[in-house]
Sequence to fold (77 residues):
Amino acid sequence: MRAFDLGALIADIVILVLLAGGVAGVVFLVKAKPTPEGQLPTAPNWYPDPADPEVLRYFDGRSWTGATRPRTAQPGA
Fold:
């Protein structure tokens, strides 16, 4: 019977750790997809108007409304 070679054992462990890290990295990248730029917000709220950077436009949870206000206005105004 032959004794384990310590160097080979350490090399095997390092390779397994690198493989596990690679798999974890791929899983992270797949799950961390950026939201599409054209995707609408889901919560009703005031959001920056893409057509006019000086105003906020209200999103009612389904579509953009015609309601706008200056960006400098206080919430609830």
Observations:
- Residues 1-33 form one domain.
